[in-house]
Amino acid sequence: MLNRYPLWKYLMLVAITVIAFIYSIPNIYVPDPAVQVSTESSGSVLVEADLKKIESALTKAEIEFFGSELSGKTAMVRVKDRDHQMLARKVIQKSLGDGYVVAMKNAQTTPQWLQSLGGAPMKLGLDLAGGVHFLLEVDTPSAITKRQEINADEMKEKLRKEKIRYLTLSHNTNNEIIGRFKSAEVRDNAISELRSEYPQLSFLAPEEKEGTTEFTFIATFTEAAIINIEDYAIEQNLVALRNRVNELGVSEPIVQRQGRNRIIVQLPGVQDPAEAKRVIGKTANLEFRLSADSNTPVLNQEQFKRKNSREQAINGNAILERQIIVTGDRVTDAQVTLTQDNLPAVSIKLDGQGGDKMYLVTRKNIKRPMGILFIEYKNRTEIVKNAQGEEVEKNTQYVEKTVISEATIQSALGTNFQITGLGDAEAAELALLLRAGALAAPMHFVEERVIAIFGC
Amino acid sequence: MGAENIKTGVQATILGLLVVVVFMMIFYRLFGLFANIALALNVLLIMTVLSWFGATLTLPGIAGIVLTIGMAVDANVLIFSRIREEMSRGASPQQAIFAGYERAFITIFDSNLTTFLVALILFIIGTGPVKGFAITLCVGIATSMFTAIVASRALVNLYYGNRKNLQKISIGSWAT
C-alpha cells in the first residue's frame, strides 16, 4: 500500500503528542503573587524562626497568606492578589529589619507531579510580564584616560627610582604618554626599562631631526589593551549595578552587557522607575583608615559595625581613626588570589597617588591594624501618618557605613598589597565589595521604559 | 509598549489563527481539519521546547510563533495543492496523496531551510527583541516541518491509507 505508515511512526507521534501535552500544561496555571525573603550576605541562612516571625507579622497585619515555605537560603509566602503582595512586602521588611532582601515574586503553581517531571511554565519577557527597562551607557573613554593618567604617574615614579632623568613625562588628550629626554641613550634606556613593566603599551621613538636637543617617546595603548580596559570597566560597573539592583527587592532582575559599552537593566514587576533610578544611580564608596589604638584621642575615634555578622558577634564594633588614608576612587583593582602558602587572599591595586599616600602612612604604622570602611547610600521606605491621619509611604535616604575588613599592617604598603587571613568565601566577598566601592567609569541613562503589568 | 498594546497584539494573534483555521476547513475540508490538528500540535511543541530550554517568551517571540504557524499552514497548502493537481492529471486518489507529499517535501524543505538560516543568523548576532523573535522562529520552523509533514500525513494515512478502492477524497470542491 502506498499511504501507510509503519506502527512505530504512529507510536512515536502519539508519544510526542503526549509529551507535548504534559509539558505545555504548566503554562495554564496562573502564578500566585508571592513575597520572597533572602538574607543580604551570602554567608547566612534563613531559619524556621525567621519564617515564624514573617507569619506572625502577616497575621497581625491581617494579610491572608498561604503556602509559606522555607528552602535553604530563601523563604516564600504566597498572597491573594497584587495589592496584598505590595502590602505584605512592606510588612515583612518592617518585621525583619535590615539585612534581609524582601522581593516580590510570581510563584509558580505547577502541581508537584508536573514539577517532578521537570515541567515548568515558559518564562515571560519584560514586555509580557511588565516592569521597567533601562539602558545605560558606560563612559569607557574616561576609564582609558584615567588609566593612562595612572600609568604616567607610575612611570615617573619608576624612572626616578631607576635614576633615569627625564625632562617631562605627561599624558595628553589623545591618551598618549609623551616622555622627553636629553639624549637618545637615556630615552632608549627608559623605554627598555618601562617596556617590560607595561606590556599593554606600545612605545614609539620617532626619528629625530638634525641638531635637536630633545629626544621623545610616545606610549599608546594597544588595541587589545583598550578592549581589556573597557571590559574591565564594564565588568566592574556590572558588579556595582547588581549589588544595587539586589537592594530594590526585585526577583530575577536582568543586568546584562549589551554591545561594547552598554548595560541593560530589566526589573520585572517594578512600576516606579523614579525609585529604581535613584537606587541604580547611587554610588558606594570605600575608605581606608587606621584602627584606633590606646594612643588615639577619643575625639579622633569613630565606631562602626562590621559587615560580617559573625565577626561582629566575636569582636564587637570596630573603632577606627577619623583620618582617611585613601578613598575608593584610588582603588583600581581588587582580585582574589592565593598567597605563597596557597591561602586565599585579596590583592588590592591602588593608583600612583593612592599608593604614595598609603606608603607614607603605613610605613610608620607597621603592626597596627587598618580597617576598610564600606559606605553605602541606601533607601528606606517607611509608613508614616500624615496630617490627615492617612498612612503614606515615605522614602528616606540614609548612609550606611560598615567595616568590611580589619587587618594588621605587616609591612609598608604601596600600590600593590594583599589582605590575608580570610576564608575562600570571605575573600571572594571582600574583593567584590572592594570593586563595588571602587569608582568605575561613570555611566548615564540613555533609555528608560516602563511596561505596564499585563493580565491583572 | 504597554498592557494595551500587548492585549491588542494577543487579540490579533488569536483572530489571525481563527481565520487561518476556518480558511483551511473551507478550502480543504477534511484535509484542512488534519492540517489544523497538526497546527495545534505544532503550538504545543513550541511551548514544550521553549520551556525545556528555559527560553524567555517575549512579544516579538509571539510574532515568531505566528510566523511559523503561517509557514506550517503554507507547507500544508503546498502539499494539498499538489494533491489536487495530481488528481486533475488523472492520478488515483492514493497515488495523488503519495505524490503530493513526496514532491511538495523538497519545496517545503528548501524554503524552510533558507528561513531557518536567516533566523539562526538573527539569533547569533541579534540582541534583545531580535533574539526573542529568532529563537521562537528557529524552534517553530523545526517543529512546523515535523507537524505539517509527518503529523498531518499520519492523520491522512490513518484515515485513507487502508482503503483499497478509494474514489473520492475530501480535499475541496473543485478537485474532484
Describe this structure in words.
The complex is a heterodimer of chains A (456) and B (176). Chain A is 34% helix and 33% strand. Chain A has 456 residues and is an alpha+beta fold. Chain A folds into three domains: 27-122, ACT domain (Alpha-Beta Plaits), CATH 3.30.70.260; 141-225, Gyrase A, domain 2, CATH 3.30.1360; 228-451, 2-Layer Sandwich (Gyrase A, domain 2). A six-stranded mixed β-sheet of chain A has the order 15-14-20-19-13-16. Chain A has a four-stranded antiparallel β-sheet with strand order 2-3-1-4, covered by helices on one side. The two termini of chain A are 55 Å apart. Chain A is globular. Chain B is mainly alpha-helical. Chain B is built from four helices and one strand. The model of chain B has no long low-confidence stretch (mean pLDDT 88). Classes of the chains: A alpha+beta (456), B mainly alpha (176). Chain A binds chain B through residues 1-5, 9-10, 13, 16-17, 19-21, 23-24, 26-27, 118-128, 130, 258-259, 264, 449, 451-455, and chain B through 1-4, 6-7, 41, 44-45, 47-48, 50-52, 54-62, 94-95, 97-98, 127-129, 132, 150-151, 153-154, 156-158, 160-162. Strand 5 (123-124) of chain A pairs parallel with strand 1 (56-57) of chain B, so a sheet runs across the interface.
**What characteristic shape of chain A results from the CA principal axes?**
globular
> Quick one: how many beta strands of chain A?
22
Which structural class fits the helix and strand makeup of chain A? alpha+beta
Give the C-alpha Rg of chain B.
18 Å
